[in-house]
């Protein structure tokens, strides 16, 4: 098998080898300068050497380059003459996400890389298909009854599952992986909210159901396609059904089988009851008359992706930051005391300091580190960067949260106060939002995240529910800093080991 993969790769590896050598012999082309931190670029292989050297830390690497770029933009030379524009410039972000929205669809590259997993679902769709999915989904998301439903689901998962597990960990002083626990929590929630189905993934036995294992590997393998030296390589592997592509096919067929069962079961249930008893998103979508089974299956998979790893990643980094910023923790505890029945929605809404802390945490560690569009025609970005038709333009929330030009010289500091104003008389905080194009953590413009309000509601419920009772204490080795890694969404590398301590005074 490995030999076959090698054989397929030879047409790519041989010229690469040749040009690597010629590059080292000094025949490098343009755009290399140590002063500006731009990576060296060579004929044919472009900046492949720098790319592969920084593969495991690409968000940090790109952020370093963009911090040194006067316009906050640079053009990455990928192998075989492929160019990619990378930007942390808010004017460019506004241009591609809003002003010139129809010139910058998701495009062919993104769709072909992810369509095995996501089909024609909302994340890969463009044009009329995206419009109709967006319309159906927005209708289902934007209702008061969904808010109430989310609140109840999250509260139940919190009180019946998360709190007892943390309580047991506190009692036996064990080290637990908080990232894994929060992912399980988010998975149960999204399945209940989106499909009215409870997978019971967060339980004291920490089960590993086939579906979630398949989902994890499908995300990893699909996102590895983005790093492929040439898409033809993974496409050939897929055609031969070998290596990582074979694993991906297996994982995808398990995922589609699972999603299809959910859709069929829900349709059967609705035929029998023909009512919106549970209020989950899928019932709402099916009730709206949208019954193309394949498309609804794609939507189901997209919702799981959207809802599972985003809130859990955000909360993992949030608890890590809180653990070393006691004044922030104290301020949040004060807010929880002032809102004694939080996590109830109306109370959670008042938690502006907590809201600011979550925004600040996602500025430094966004759950989605980067997002790409593809130019449908030749264009020039507001900062003067020339974009040819077919070129990918990627904006990077991870880099943008680390730009001195946008956040000041204290950008490395975790300071929720940068999102707040204090009323001198009452002493109360009020939240001051940044514009969406400077902080596109939830994307912006017509494709802005549909689950943003739901995500904040869930996260604040968790923060209030956990911190009112427990202290989260990192259990990493002395001097060990967590590492931010990114597949389609971000993660803390190796998980987040913590000890849980009960607070002496319950709030
Ligand atoms: C902290 C939590 C979250 C963050 C940071 C976040 C971020 C994002 C981002 C960056 C996008 C654009 C992705 C792309 O186009 O490639 C997006 C889209 C989307 N998100 Fe979220 N998300 C979060 C939670 C959720 C939740 C809980 C849901 C609920 C299912 C959700 C549903 C969606 C949907 C449906 C879209 C597609 C919108 C479209 O293309 O029109 N998100 N989100």
Automatic annotation (TrEMBL):
Species whose genome carries this gene = Nelumbo nucifera
Name of the protein described by the UniProt record: Cytochrome P450 94A2-like
Concerning CDD domains, the annotation shows: CYP86A
Phylogenetic classification of the source organism: Eukaryota, Viridiplantae, Streptophyta, Embryophyta, Tracheophyta
Record keywords: Heme, Iron, Membrane, Metal-binding, Oxidoreductase, Transmembrane, Transmembrane helix
Q: Where does heme bind?
A: 449
Write down the superkingdom of origin.
Answer: Eukaryota
Q: Which Pfam families match?
A: p450
Q: Which residues cross the membrane?
A: 6-25
Q: Which cofactor does it need?
A: heme
* A molecular function (GO) term: oxidoreductase activity, acting on paired donors, with incorporation or reduction of molecular oxygen
For this chain, the family text in UniProt reads: Belongs to the cytochrome P450 family.
User: Record's InterPro entries?
Assistant: Cyt_P450, Cyt_P450_E_grp-I, Cyt_P450_sf
């Amino acid at each position: 098998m490995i030999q076959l993969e090698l054989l397929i790769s030879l047409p790519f590896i041989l010229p690469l080898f040749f040009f690597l050598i010629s590059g080292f012999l000094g025949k490098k082309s343009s755009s290399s300068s140590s002063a500006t931190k731009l990576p060296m670029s060579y004929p044919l292989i472009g900046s492949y050497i720098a790319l592969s050297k920084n593969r495991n830390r690409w968000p940090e690497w790109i952020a370093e380059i963009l911090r040194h770029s006067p316009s906050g933009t640079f053009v990455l030379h990928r192998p075989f003459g492929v160019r990619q524009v990378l930007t942390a410039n808010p004017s460019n972000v506004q241009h591609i996400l809003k002003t010139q929205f129809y010139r910058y669809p998701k495009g062919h590259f993104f769709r072909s890389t992810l369509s095995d997993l996501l089909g024609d679902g909302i994340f890969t769709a463009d044009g009329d298909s995206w419009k109709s999915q967006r319309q159906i989904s927005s209708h289902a998301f934007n209702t008061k009854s969904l808010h109430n439903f989310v609140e109840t689901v999250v509260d139940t998962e919190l009180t019946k599952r998360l709190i007892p597990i943390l309580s047991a960990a506190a009692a036996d002083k064990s080290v637990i992986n908080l990232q894994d626990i929060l992912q399980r929590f988010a998975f149960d929630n999204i399945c209940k909210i989106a499909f009215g189905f409870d997978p019971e993934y967060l339980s004291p036995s920490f089960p590993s159901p086939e579906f979630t294992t398949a989902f994890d590997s499908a995300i990893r393998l699909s996102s590895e396609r983005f790093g492929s030296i040439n898409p033809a390589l993974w496409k050939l592997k897929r055609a031969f059904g070998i290596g990582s592509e074979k694993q991906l096919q297996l994982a995808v067929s398990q995922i589609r089988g699972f999603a299809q069962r959910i859709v069929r079961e829900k349709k059967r249930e609705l035929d029998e009851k023909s009512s919106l008893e549970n209020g989950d998103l899928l019932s709402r979508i099916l009730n709206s008359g949208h019954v193309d089974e394949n498309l609804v299956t794609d939507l189901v998979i997209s919702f799981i992706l959207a809802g599972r790893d985003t809130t859990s990643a955000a909360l993992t980094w949030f608890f890590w930051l809180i653990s070393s910023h006691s004044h922030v923790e104290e301020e949040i505890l004060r807010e929880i005391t002032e809102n004694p029945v939080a996590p109830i929605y109306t109370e959670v809404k008042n938690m502006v300091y907590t809201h600011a802390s979550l925004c600040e945490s996602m500025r430094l560690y966004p759950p989605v580190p980067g997002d790409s569009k593809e130019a449908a025609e030749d264009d020039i970005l507001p900062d003067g960067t020339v974009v040819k038709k077919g070129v990918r333009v990627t904006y990077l929330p991870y880099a943008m949260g680390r730009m001195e030009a946008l956040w000041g010289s204290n950008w490395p500091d975790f300071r929720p106060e940068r999102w707040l104003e204090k009323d001198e008389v009452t002493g109360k905080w009020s939240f001051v939002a940044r514009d969406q194009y400077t902080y596109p953590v939830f994307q912006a413009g017509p494709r802005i995240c549909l689950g943003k309000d739901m995500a904040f509601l869930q996260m604040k419920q968790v923060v209030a529910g956990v911190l009112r009772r427990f202290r989260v204490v990192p259990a990493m080795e002395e001097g060990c800093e967590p590492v931010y890694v990114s597949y389609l969404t971000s993660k803390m590398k190796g998980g987040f080991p913590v000890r849980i301590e009960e607070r002496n005074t319950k709030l």
